[in-house]
Amino acid sequence: MAILTSDSFTVELIDDPRELPGAEDWNVLARSAGSPFLTVQWLAAWWRAFGSGQFTCLVLRDGRGSLRAGACCRRLAGGRLAAAANAHSGDWDVVAADPQARRALWQALAGLGAGAVHLPGIRSRASLEAADHELRAAGYSTVQATGVRSPYLELPGSWDDLLASVSRNLRSQLGRRRRGLEREGRLVFRTTTGGDEEVQRDLATFLRVESSGWKASAATAILSDPRTERLYTDFAKAAASAGWLRLNFLELDGVPLAVDMNCVFAGGMFLIKTGFDERYARFSPGLVLRGEVLRAAILESCRFYDFLGGPDGYKLRWTTELRPRVAVRAYRGAFRPLALYHARLRPVLKAGVVRARAVKGGLARRRRYSEGA
After folding, report:
1. CA dihedral defined by 258, 259, 265, 266, rounded to 10 degrees?
2. Among 18, 88, 27, which residue's Cα sits nearest to residue 232?
3. Per-residue pLDDT at 371
């Protein structure tokens, strides 16, 4: 661990993930940023599953030794610096106690001297502005590109108020689907939050259902990759210990039809993963489960529900608000011409790839999934 000093802060450079600052202090900053993906629990689980390159964590402390800001990155071959994040990370950002600490952290990150920097998943406008300013001041050319636009729902004070805010068609279908399931047998919605044995048992059930059907055949299920399984298993256990985990099940005569992994954090609920048994797709068990989960979130006094991921149809039935994640790329030296590529050429090429994938049936698979959810 290297230690540098500035006028207002001490900057620690941590190269061992086992030396991450304590969760109690770090997670206060993660909570103010409003994301479970910035907590010690997620970052530690992610690194164990997907960590590559050299772990690089910047930590800022004030004169009293109090934690004021931090960011987890990784150094890659060729002098590149990347976020400790990938497609499974709903967000990535620095965590900071105030604007001064945030700007100082970005200044320290820019001072690491990487030739190329790739930091996806940033939601905070303040961070984007600080990143652009400090990276440019350090001699970088910067490019910002909008990434995933995740549906986001501000929750009202009651379930009745939420129902009143959605379409008449959604209200009608939700009632019909629920009554149809109730005619088939005993319908139960239940939630697991903690207890080692209970979490272990229900986590196995969740993974089995989530990994059934088209997700398994498309190799996008959690169990399709040992690294993905380790990430979500480790995080679920850590989140349960912290009191954040919500494993939700919609069961018919004891058989799980649809499952959710949700995380309650920073005053809201986040949809980490979901799945359903395709044998019951005609009943739309995912739709019924989503209604029960949203009702439960309101009863827990959650202020919002973050669907995460892309704007799938089953999410947009509940909300039209989308929160974009922005990727920051920065280049200098021999890497500088890549700034032009990512600013002008890459978006055109990416649009062509997306269109080609749609023709090959990628969107059709998503539509089939939405029908069950």
Report:
1. -20
2. 88
3. 45
**CA–CA distance, 159 with 162 (Å, rounded to integer):** 5
Per-residue pLDDT, averaged over 6-18, amounts to 89
Give yes or no for residue 367 having a pLDDT over 70: no
Q: Would you tell me which CATH number, out of the four given (3.40.630.30, 2.40.10.10, 3.40.50.720, 3.30.830.10), belongs to the domain 2-149+325-369? A: 3.40.630.30
* 71-89 b/e (C-beta count within 10 Å ≥ 16 → b): bbbbbbeeebbbbbbbebb
Write the pLDDT tens digit of every residue in 23-41: 999 999 999 999 999 999 9
Residue 327 contacts residue 121 (beta carbons within 8 Å)? yes
Alpha helix locations (H) across 37-167? Answer: 40-50, 99-110, 125-137, 159-165
Q: Which fold has domain 156-302?
A: Aminopeptidase (3.40.630)
Specify the pairing of strand 80-83 against strand 116-122: parallel
- Dihedral sign from CA coordinates of 15, 18, 22, 25: positive
Put simply, whether the predicted model's pTM sits higher than 0.90 gets the answer yes
pLDDT digits (tens, 9 = 90+) for 347-365: 554 655 545 554 444 444 4
Q: How many CB atoms are located within 10 Å of the residue 145 CB?
A: 15
The residues pairing with 97 across neighbouring beta strands, listed in sequence order, are none
Residues 6 or more apart from 226 whose CB is under 8 A from it? none
